[in-house]
Amino acid sequence: MRIALIAPPFIAVPPKKYGGTELFVAELAEGLQQEGAKVVLYANGESTASVETRWIYEEEDWPFHSEVEASLKGLSHSAWAVQDAAREADVIHLNSAPGLSFSHFVNKPFVYTIHHAYEQALTEYYAKLPDVHYVTISDFQKQKLQMPHMRAIHHGIKPSLYQLKEAKQPYLCFLGRVAPPKGTHLAIEIAKKSGIALKIAGEIQPVYQEYWESQVKPHVDGKFIEYVGELGPEEKNELLGSSMAMVFPIQWDEPFGLVMIEAMACGTPVLAMPGGSVCEVVREGVGGYVRNSVNELADCARNLRIAPRDVRRYMEENFSVERMAKDYLELYAGIASGRAQSSGETESMVA
Question: Taking the domains of the chain in order of start, what are their residue ranges?
Fold first, then answer.
């Protein structure tokens, strides 16, 4: 089977630092190829995924300098990629919304993975494209949508890229965008109430600069609360693996939360607040703990009872790239043969 996998053109696949969607695309591309599919990846020229890669934009372009220019660049990339893919692909798999409009006049099956939280305007846009086969990344995300062809498939990663560390260091970690929806300020509160140091890693986007300056930076002393910047794969592995736990006190409806399974791959439990997919990903007492308050999570941090090897095993059993690739191949095959499931028959991988 020939699969055209189209990523946004702004960040390399896989990402050098920030980029959840790009990490997913890289894992899926290589996982599909490992399962015997012929994969062509459409990304940018700095991408290093181990599959055939095509591009018209050679360099990364992140963060955006202009939303208008970014929208036009994304549209141009999608138009070129869909036109090229239509010549030989059996299925065209998109990961950003602009390219879906070409499904009106390209006679190929389209799959689209929805990576964003619920947005009414985008939902209305999808409703005008009922022939696309939509993939949500959690059951929670799927419940808010009404498209006729829809299935939930949880993300997966390669366990081999993450080192299990059973000897932990006396600190908690936070990994993600430094932003109010991610709850960075609450991670600091959890650390202070638990008496356990915190290392914060992640991107500070310009739109959240004031948040950083007023609610995070004043607490950063370089000792108890430390900001370590954006991290590449090796540094991220070390941060997660050596940490007692990763705190994930989100304040929004998380569509999936890839960093949760990255932490668990390192044998590090997740201490999370409920929101969106969290309770699907973190099995209570196995992958970590989900609580409603800072005080409860601080108490969990002081009384961790989960063995790192058990956390890793849980991740391997539920969130491997092999399982994800097989689920997508099953979907592609169903589409090609006319057996694809409707939204009423949707299957999802529930941890």
Answer: 2-158+320-345, 160-318
